[in-house]
Amino acid sequence: MAPSPSRARRAYARYVGAVSLLQHPLLLACRLYWGGMFIPRGFNKLTHLKVTAEQFAFWHIHPSYPSAIAAGTTELVCGSLLVIGLASRIAVVPLIVTMIVAYFTAHADEVTNLFTFVTAPPFLNLLTCVLVLVFGPGVFSVDYLIGRFVCGSSAESPAARDPDSKR
After folding, report:
1. Which of 2, 11, 77, 149 is 20 to 30 Å from 63 at the Cα level?
2. How many domains does the chain have?
3. DSSP alpha helices (H): ranges in the chain?
4. Whether 82 contacts 38, CB under 8 Å
5. CB 140, CB 29: distance < 8 Å
6. Which of 38, 42, 44 is nearest to 121 (CA)?
7. Contact at 8 Å (CB) between 27 and 138?
């Protein structure tokens, strides 16, 4: 006897529900690991400003000192916000810009096709930022706590909260 379509739909719905439980831990892991890489790199740029500015000048990023300060501060501050999940969707925008600049300057000679693009060092940091921009930081974040307990809403999209909305 073949399984009925309704039984198959229920089984698939349970499967999707179970797999969806991994969304928030995955977002947390990405934020902590790849997002956390911004913090020491930004701190290193700021504490070794002369070396960073010389490297920026070598990559033809001018003015090199203000650009080094901006990049270091962006990575340190926005990386910290990303890790704790505070103002995450706003904090990732400057980080995305920083990673795009890194592609066009520090890694311009390395990136020649799609394979070298996705294997270049900035890729996983850029991917993490794009994931957080699109999906949010997840429930393990300050953003979620603020939304849940201060504003009285969850971190889900309005469509996910409203059962009557059309998807």
Report:
1. 77
2. 1
3. 5-20, 23-33, 38-47, 49-58, 64-73, 79-84, 88-104, 114-119, 123-135, 142-145, 158-161
4. yes
5. no
6. 38
7. yes
pLDDT band at 82 (very low <50, low <70, confident <90, very high): very high
End-to-end alpha carbon distance in the chain = 34
Mean pLDDT of 7-13: 93
Its pTM surpasses 0.90:
no
Tens-digit pLDDT profile for residues 32-60: 999 999 999 999 999 999 999 999 999 99
Assigned domain for 15 exists: no
Which residue's structure tokens are 């379509």? 5
Report the alpha-carbon distance of residue 69 to residue 48 in Å, rounded.
Answer: 10
**Is residue 110 assigned to a domain?**
yes
Q: Which of 137, 161, 145 is nearest to 24 (CA)?
A: 137
Domain that holds residue 60: 23-160
